[in-house]
Design goal:
Blueprint: E1 3-9, E2 13-20, E3 23-27, H1 33-39, E4 46-48, H2 54-57, H3 60-67, E5 71-73, E6 82-83, E7 89-92, E8 95-101, E9 110-118, E10 121-129, E11 132-133, E12 136-137, H4 145-156, E13 163-166, H5 171-181, H6 186-200, E14 208-209, H7 210-216, H8 225-234, H9 242-254
Parallel strand pairs: 3-4, 4-5, 5-6, 10-13
Antiparallel strand pairs: 1-2, 2-3, 7-8, 8-9, 9-10, 11-12, 13-14
Helix pairs in contact: 5-6, 8-9
The structure holds zinc ion.
């Protein structure tokens, strides 16, 4: 039985902790201390990394020194012992893991899809770092709008039940922007109310699902005319193709 739990780190990061059959893995340990505390004497069997930012990689050295575990991620990152590339298929925790490249936030950014067989078929678990957030997406630090739009489209083509484990608690602010970008979207209004209630109790809003993102995430709804009109209106444009809509939305959100 696979269990996936968040380890809060810094002000709004989540380090995802995966456990199955007594094995422990973590995704994007920006800090070693909360991981060591969570493991409570158990050993760490491996580390997955989505991209090079320090709040996702800062704990690698200390965890490696303590547990001597493998580190799987983009090959350019210090401390990665097994470089991953798009299309790679491997096994962790006795389950198949697939690697997708999703450039945009950074150029080295990977998304990791874990497949868990169940009686009904399988559950899919997506670890997407800072590419896809609940109701939002990462800033474009290195990539182009076209790259990020393509990356989000790739993730959007996964089955709608796919669980989405983002690396930050940004959902509330993202939904406030989503409500501005698409005021007539009832799914956004409803999700905003749910998330406001969760955050008022200091509860986590993740995981999301691909289905929920397709319904409420403006950055995955650039093809919706109402979103395109709002994005174009912000930029004083008449019409725009999907990548232009995405670029205008991202720029608007950067200053929202
Ligand atoms: Zn990042």
């Amino acid at each position: 039985m696979l269990s996936i739990n968040p380890i809060p780190a810094f002000s709004d990061n989540y380090i995802w902790h995966l456990t199955r059959g007594g094995e422990h893995w973590v995704v994007d340990p920006g800090d070693a201390a909360p991981v060591i505390e969570t493991l409570a004497g158990e050993s760490l069997d491996g580390i997955l990394i989505t991209h090079h930012h320090l709040d996702h990689t800062g704990g690698i050295a200390a965890l490696r020194a303590r547990y001597q575990c493998p580190v799987l991620g983009p090959g350019s990152i210090d401390g990665v012992t097994q470089p991953l590339q798009s299309g790679d298929r491997l096994e962790i925790l006795g389950l198949p893991l697939e690697v997708m490249d999703v450039p945009g936030h950074t150029l080295d950014h990977l998304a990791l899809l874990l497949r868990e067989p169940t009686d009904q078929g399988e559950k899919l678990h997506l670890f997407c770092g800072d590419t896809l957030f609940a109701a939002g997406c990462g800033r474009l630090f290195e990539g182009t709008p076209a790259q990020m739009h393509a990356s989000l489209s790739k993730l959007g083509s996964l089955p709608p039940e796919t669980r989405v484990y983002c690396a930050h608690e940004y959902t509330l602010a993202n939904l406030r922007f989503a409500a501005a970008a698409e005021p007539g979207n009832v799914a956004v209004t409803n999700r905003l109310a749910e998330v406001q209630a969760l955050r008022a109790d200091d509860k986590i809003t993740l995981p999301s699902t691909i289905g929920a993102e397709l319904a409420t995430n403006p950055f995955m709804r650039c093809h919706i005319p109402a979103v395109a009109r709002r994005a174009a209106g912000q930029a004083g444009m008449d019409s725009a193709d999907e990548v232009e809509v995405f670029a205008r939305l991202r720029q608007w959100k950067d200053n929202f």
